[in-house]
Amino acid sequence: MWTLGPAGPTPPASLMSRSVLRSRGSGARLSSSASSASDTSIGSVFEEGGAVGGAEERDPDDPDFSDGEEEEPSYLPAEIRDKKHENLSNLLLQERSSLGQLYLLNEMTRTRSSIDLNSGETAEERIEAIYLESGVRKRWMSVRYAAALLRKVVDCLAPSLTGMLVRGKEVTIGVFGYAEHVVTEPMSPKDLVKIIYDMCMPADPIEAVLQQEIIIYLADVFTSQATLFQGMLRLRIGWIIQAMKNELKDLATVEKLNLVTAERRVEQLSPHQVKQLLIYVLQDIDSRSALSTRQLHGALNRVPPLFYEKVYNILKRACGVNVRGKTLLQVPTVHEVSGQEVQFALKVEELLSSITIPEYRQVIVEMLMVVSTVLERNPEIICSSVLKLDEVMSIHHTSGVSV
């Protein structure tokens, strides 16, 4: 569990342990979107068990039991991409890692709809077997990867999304660094699942399942701790996951762990630990460094109070605001909406969505707040052209002035 330290919530040391974290319980279930294949719980209400390093011997029937660290795959997805089917089949026979087998099976089925393996089973049957076995052993990365290949669906997904939409939030689906789909109104479970898998599978199959988990947890946290979402109009699921990865990367720097390994730790955490990490990154903690804070707020798309109204005031004094090649023009914007309307806030978010680096987005937000203050204190200033934020940022950087 997360503990409360002198400077705020502190993640337990076991979060960064290289050993598989043990957990118990049952919770959100995954069902197959394609068939009536048997379901198995990947959990949602879990508690950490044991100490870091050298756990006591346990009964395999104990729900806290974990049989150790997941074996590293022999090949990563990029290393087997576009290999011949016969070569993949031979590699599959030799692969001991469950995750490695899933990588190979995914590549084998990517171009063929139906495959019979040398063992006499189909590729889907092998994936289902790995999914079930990994669930028993609590090897969460394999569970999620197999669930994605089987197109599993978390229960109550559509109602959870709807709950956030009716509370005035927008939600985007898609992997960080790739295209996103903006959801602005309730959707049927079938349509929502299609969007999630279409947006996530080509970039990172695990995120097709992880993003479902995050939607469920966000809706749950929203119900009990709505104040954590202040200043967040658009919930970008892929960016929130990136914020969680950044948080673990900071912890890895402290612990001197491998950063690539740390970046994948979110996928290896139990569902309960994923939820606890999500809550942790949503909290505004003073002990974070300036860079970490900017990365976090930028990834969460969090803005300060009255931010949109201040951007509106800038727009009334300039012909427009431009960033990363996208422009929000003064006309007709100020004639169509007021600075207090949600529609204007969404226009600003659409402008900022062109920024692909979280900390840069946050610096731009801070810059807009500064520009607004300057204009408020100097009413005689009028900008007769479009305010190009990238150019202003470049001038600040060249002159050594920090925002």
Radius of gyration: 23 Å
The profile of the biggest β sheet is:
3 strands, antiparallel
Mean pLDDT: 82
- How far the N terminus sits from the C terminus, by CA atoms, comes to 36 Å
Share in helix: 40-55%
Which parts are unreliable, with pLDDT below 50 for 5 consecutive residues or more?
1-27, 34-58, 62-66, 399-403
Order of helices and strands: EEEEHHHHHEHEEHHEHHHHHHEEHHHEH
Structural class: mainly alpha
Overall body shape: elongated
Give the DSSP E fraction (strand runs of 2 or more residues): 5-15%
> Counting H and I runs of at least 4 residues, what is the number of helices?
18
Tell how many strands the DSSP assignment holds: 11
**Can you list the strand order of the major beta sheet?**
4-3-5
Keywords:
403 residues; three-stranded mixed sheet; disordered N terminus
Provide a short characterization of the protein structure.
The chain has 403 residues and is mainly alpha-helical. 51% of the residues lie in helices and 9% in strands. The chain has helices spanning 77-80, 85-94, 98-110, 123-137, 140-149, 157-165, 189-200, 205-224, 237-255, 259-263, 265-268, 271-282, 290-300, 307-317, 330-336, 342-352, 358-377, 389-399, and strands at 3-5, 8-10, 29-32, 40-41, 152-154, 170-173, 181-183, 234-236, 320-323, 326-329, 386-388.
